[in-house]
């Protein structure tokens, strides 16, 4: 079973990202599935959504125990993104693989840039339902089309648009990621063929365990330290996926 060890290693890294940063799991899962495990871009997106949904639920429970989940606002944010996520998931089957790869690379680079920006003071709390709904809908569209959970966008949106603390944003983003991933997964299941469970199952199991460790890391290290490390990983992913798009 030559794919088992890469699946376990990649799953552990994905879980650490989700548990520690409240996002970024799909940004690592998709290229790992494509370049390490031989999935097509569309198939990797589908498998990634399943892996991220299960792992996010695990991380959500861990953060909820610490009181870091804003359930009401998070549910509104997530609900607004569900129709857009489903529509994006259906559309993804009709988009060329090279274009999906290029879009993914651009998104990874953009996310890294946002993470590397100098930290600013906490924004004043804004509890506008319209603001939460608009941000959630945009996030859902990205989730469905590219097969990413969207936490790397949800966390800064929750902080800057809704005034969450970083800890609250990380915990609440996992609720959003889980809901959006499941909404985007359903229309994809019938269009990308069956999943390779010999790879997906151990990948998911390792990610679930990694999510608990990621939550512990989040408790020990400063958020900016974790963000910078993850931004560096995202830039590497963007370069790899961009090169793949150019060569495809």
Characterization of this structure:
It is a single chain. By secondary structure, the chain is mainly alpha-helical. Helices cover 80% and strands 0% of the residues. α1 crosses α3, α4 runs parallel beside α6 and α5 (97-116) packs antiparallel against α10 (223-247).
Specify the helix fraction band. over 70%
Average pLDDT level: 80
Tell me the span between the first and last alpha carbons: 28 Å
| SS-derived structural category | mainly alpha
List low-pLDDT spans. Answer: none
Task: Please name the defining characteristics of this protein.
single chain; 248 residues; mainly alpha; 10 helices; 80% helix; globular
Write the layout of secondary structure elements.
Blueprint: H1 4-21, H2 25-36, H3 41-65, H4 71-92, H5 97-116, H6 129-146, H7 151-160, H8 166-189, H9 197-220, H10 223-247
Summary?
The chain has 248 residues and is mainly alpha-helical. It has ten helices and no strands. α4 (71-92) runs parallel beside α8 (166-189).
């Amino acid at each position: 079973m030559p794919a088992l060890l890469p699946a376990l290693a990649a799953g552990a890294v994905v879980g650490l990202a989700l548990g520690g940063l409240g996002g970024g799991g799909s940004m690592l899962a998709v290229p790992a599935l494509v370049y390490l495990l031989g999935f097509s871009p569309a198939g990797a997106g589908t498998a990634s959504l399943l892996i991220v949904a299960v792992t996010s639920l695990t991380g959500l429970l861990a953060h909820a125990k610490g009181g870091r989940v804003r359930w009401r606002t998070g549910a509104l944010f997530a609900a607004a993104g569900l129709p857009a996520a489903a529509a994006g998931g259906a559309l993804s089957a009709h988009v060329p693989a090279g274009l999906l790869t290029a879009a993914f690379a651009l998104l990874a680079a953009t996310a890294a840039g946002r993470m590397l920006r100098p930290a600013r003071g906490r924004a004043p709390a804004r509890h506008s339902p319209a603001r939460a709904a608009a941000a959630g809908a945009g996030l859902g569209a990205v989730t469905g089309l590219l097969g990413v959970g969207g936490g790397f966008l949800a966390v800064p949106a929750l902080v800057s648009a809704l005034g969450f603390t970083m800890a609250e944003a990380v915990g609440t983003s996992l609720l959003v990621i889980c809901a959006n991933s499941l909404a985007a997964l359903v229309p994809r299941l019938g269009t990308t063929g069956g999943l390779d469970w010999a790879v997906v199952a151990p990948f998911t199991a390792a990610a679930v365990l990694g999510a608990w460790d990621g939550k512990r890391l989040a408790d020990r290290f400063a958020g900016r330290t974790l963000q910078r490390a993850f931004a560096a990983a995202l830039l590497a992913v963007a370069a790899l996926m961009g090169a793949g798009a150019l060569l495809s």
